[in-house]
Amino acid sequence: MVHGHKGVRFQNWARTYGCCPEMYYQPTSVEEVREVLALARQQNKKVKVVGGGHSPSDIACTDGFMIHMGKMNRVLQVDKEKKQVTVEAGILLTDLHPQLDKHGLALSNLGAVSDVTAGGVIGSGTHNTGIKHGILATQVVALTLMTADGAILECSESSNAEVFQAARVHLGCLGVILTITLQCVPQFHLQETSFPSTLKEVLDNLDSHLKKSEYFRFLWFPHSENVSIIYQDHTNKPPSSSASWFWDYAVGFYLLEFLLWTSTFLPCLVGWINRFFFWLLFTRKKESSNLSHKIFTYECRFKQHVQDWAEKTKEALLELKAMLEAHPKVVAHYPVEVRFTRGDDILLSPCFQRDSCYMNIIMYRPYGKDVPRLDYWLAYETIMKKFGGRPHWAKAHNCTRKDFEKMYPAFPKFCAIREKLDPTGMFLNSYLEKVFY
Ligand SMILES: Cc1cc2nc3c(=O)[nH]c(=O)nc-3n(C[C@H](O)[C@H](O)[C@H](O)COP(=O)(O)OP(=O)(O)OC[C@H]3O[C@@H](n4cnc5c(N)ncnc54)[C@H](O)[C@@H]3O)c2cc1C
């Protein structure tokens, strides 16, 4: 018999959203998940499944029943021939990597952090960079889904194919993802090289950068022309690191946090901070190499607000820059991170049927203090919409059903599948109601 807890408060990683679910469950088996759903049906409650709680929006919040998947976190099977691994959806990627290492396998691409679950990263459309690589959900070859009525659907290209096309980016609204089979690649090492450049140079030579490096991305420092280019590529070199406690922590975190806090009283300092930190930390060529998952991910120390939309690079970035120049009172923390992703056929993937560029903007919360960001956010969203952008599902945005109907050709198809699998809307919360109603 599954036991629930009352009075648990949930907060996302960035502490930007939280909620007090009526009941909080940590099931350890499929049967216990089924019991929670049966209780929810009897009592007419909403259900929200939560993974690592890293989504910067309220997508994982609920006042109803919360199912935390942390105890359903086993590796179930490793098929060395096909290089596929089947995991329970609650596994943190941080726990999956060493298991894959043992078998000489790796995931071909990862987001910036690994304290996130397999179920969460695919459900929110988590991505990294690499124009030959899709979002993380494109690595899924099969999954099992428990729907609102307690039934289990096995989904893949050959079984429940339509649900599979929807459920890889599921937003947590189709049911409980129980297991996921991921296509892996042989274990590999990456070399990361970062070097300074300018916005003009990188935008004029995007194709050449994309050809030169398998996992190319760049950071733009708003209120300046400065750019840091980052290449990550396969290597046979032994692990090496350019990390330094003094530069990475003392300067790159403690000093930066203090100066950003100071700038909450004197916003005109932000442009100077961006230029000063570029000069301090990003004007030197840096190299490091290691196992792929150690290079893809990094320790993210700052609590922050973020926005991240997928769409056209050059026009959107130049318009964002022009907006900041025309409105000196709108300040923007560094960096704006620009990443590239291959198109796919997943119904609600921001890269549905097109190769995409993601532009991630950020406003830190120094010592937990919120910094005014609404003008920046609004201008950014307006520009992204104008260029046909689609917001990252995990991140707070102001779009509603009307917007998504325009953005996603397959939106009606996804809605039909969702309504069939969850006719009473058991898996909706207020974030998802804005998407679907
Ligand atoms: C520091 C930091 C760095 C980040 N870097 C990146 C990045 O590089 N690229 C990027 O794209 N994103 C990035 N993100 C966003 C992050 O990858 C996503 O928010 C991801 O969803 C987090 O996974 P999670 O396990 O924490 O999911 P949660 O936030 O817990 O959940 C996300 C959604 O999935 C649903 N869900 C989770 N598990 C299940 C399940 N088993 N069954 C059904 N529904 C489920 C939830 O209901 C919710 O709707 C970052 C976030 C942070 C805080």
From TrEMBL:
Gene Ontology biological process terms from the UniProt entry: L-ascorbic acid biosynthetic process
Start and end residues of each FAD-binding PCMH-type domain: 17-187
InterPro entries referenced in this protein's UniProt entry, alphabetically: ALO_C (IPR007173), FAD-bd_PCMH (IPR016166), FAD-bd_PCMH-like_sf (IPR036318), FAD-bd_PCMH_sub1 (IPR016167), FAD-bd_PCMH_sub2 (IPR016169), FAD_lactone_oxidase-like (IPR010031), Oxid_FAD_bind_N (IPR006094), Oxy_OxRdtase_FAD_BS (IPR006093)
Reaction(s) this enzyme catalyzes, per UniProt: L-gulono-1,4-lactone + O2 = L-ascorbate + H2O2 + H(+)
GO CC terms of this entry: endoplasmic reticulum membrane
Membrane topology of this protein: Single-pass membrane protein
Cofactor(s) the protein needs: FAD
Pfam families noted in UniProt: ALO, FAD_binding_4
UniProt main location, coarse: membrane
Domain of life from the UniProt record: Eukaryota
Compartments (UniProt record): Microsome membrane; Endoplasmic reticulum membrane
Pathway assigned to this chain's UniProt record: Cofactor biosynthesis; L-ascorbate biosynthesis via UDP-alpha-D-glucuronate pathway; L-ascorbate from UDP-alpha-D-glucuronate: step 4/4
EC number in record: 1.1.3.8
Keyword hit for Transmembrane helix: yes
Keywords: Ascorbate biosynthesis, Endoplasmic reticulum, FAD, Flavoprotein, Membrane, Microsome, Oxidoreductase, Transmembrane, Transmembrane helix
Regions that span the bilayer: 258-282
GO molecular function: D-arabinono-1,4-lactone oxidase activity; FAD binding; L-gulonolactone oxidase activity
The protein's role, per its UniProt record: Oxidizes L-gulono-1,4-lactone to hydrogen peroxide and L-xylo-hexulonolactone which spontaneously isomerizes to L-ascorbate.
NCBIfam families documented for this protein: FAD_lactone_ox
Family, as annotated: Belongs to the oxygen-dependent FAD-linked oxidoreductase family.
Record protein name field: L-gulonolactone oxidase
Lineage of producing organism: Eukaryota, Metazoa, Chordata, Craniata, Vertebrata
Annotated gene: LOC107153895
